[in-house]
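Hi Y.,

Following your request, here is the sequence exactly as I used it, all 533 residues.
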Amino acid sequence: MRNNSELMEKLAAAAKAGRLSRRGFLGSATAAGVTAATASGLWATHARAEPKRGGTFRWGIHDGNTADSHDPGTYVTRQGIYLAAQHRSYLTMIAPDNTLAGDLATEWSATPDATEWTFKLTDKASFHSGKKLTAEDVVASLNHHRGEKSTSAAKALLADVTEIVADDAHTVTIKLSGGNADLPWLLTDYHFVVCPANTDGTIDWRSGDGSGPYKIDNGEFGVRWDLSRFDGWHGEGAYFDKVVMLVLNDPNARQTALMTGDVDCISLVELKTLSLLQRAPNIEIDNVPTGAAITLPMFCDRAPFDNVDVRMALKLAMDREEIVEKIAYGAATIGNDFHLAPSQPYFPADIPQREYDPEQAKFLLKKAGAENVSVKLHTADSLFSGAVDMCVLYSEQAKKAGINIEVVREANDGYYADVWLKEPFTAVSWGARPTPDVIFTQAYKAGAVWNESHWANERFNELLPIAKAELDDAKRTEMYHEMCMLMRDDGGTIIPFFNNFVYARSSKVQHGADQAANWECDGGRAPTRWWFA
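Below is the corresponding structure, written out as tokens. Let me know if you'd prefer a different format.
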């Protein structure tokens, strides 16, 4: 009995420190001979971490550029995404357990054909400037991503919206040309923040005013942001008094800052030094499986990638198992050249895994008249842990297929502004999207701003709106299966793996049992959801 008591104390301590989920706690407790009912009671009274207020949370983040801005249509780096989650609000959001939750919206409903959605807003929200948030602000903020003049990267996501109406001060109705069963999920996309509306129907995004849990005191893109708790926030959490976001693109600088106590958390751990960091005293590691993808898009309208046999040869010339082992150190799920991970809905598990086959790649290159083809692959250290090393390893693997890949190491600062979508073959890090339609529409639909491979497949684009509107889950599953096959065999994107989010924090920083898997550090909302012991 004494041993069981000691074990339960250890389990409770691990749970309070955020190292053990509720499921893990209950499983370990019942394995130790505790009944399920008793284990649930112990979780509720002893293991569940209790948030506390106070302190300054210093957060070392990767992937920040000086070219970033407060314009929500241009958000692309982690700096922009994480900052937005602190100082601005959304209609809906991803909860720590990866379910859909409300932010500004308290409830929502749709017509039977899902062509019209109504959102009820909280009456407690206000901007940091003191202005009360109303439905007009929501209408203007969503319209910022619509219309012929919009240059927003999220424009394609709202292409089916025909009208957005403020029914009253706290009710918004969104009308669509076709059904969209995923609209509340789609609105969690990080671009769809709510900004103050101007009198002409545009939004005031330049000031940085928002209605999020923290207000901006001062800062500079690519360098640092200082924020303080907004006492008028409408939600729960925001336990820290102040938040300091430090852009630390260099992985060694990030981990050194954590080890020396200069920061309390870092958003990305260098995987090749993970084992050393795990042995460090007073450091906790969070390793979260996700739907976040590493992609290598090729411009399908640019030679030599305009030939499907060349694209297939480049896919077959990659040994993904070796990459996951040597680059991701096992903290990843192998990719299969379609943009869905096993953790995501509608994942087609029966599609055969693509294998490394340099001989078949050689055959296809000969068929295409592209033997000994040479290409440049652009990458940068800040994209993900091991980004440059992965491209170099891929280059070595491809030599067996007679493919010469020159790895071009670009500067971290400005990569997404100056390299991605401009060079024909690049390495990219995508955060997880909540549904297939969101990522398919944003990155694979013909003409989408972020269609990074310039892929235009007629059948894929035909299926996209049909699948989105289909309420029969079995039929929808079949359509997404076909779309994944088209991406895999015709598409211009190589997907080496879906990377786990591996980040680290001081042991004095605590969080709940679950961690949202859409972005690092609890969906990029660590300052709102975490606290000091």
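The chain has 18 helices and 21 strands.

Thanks again,
Q.
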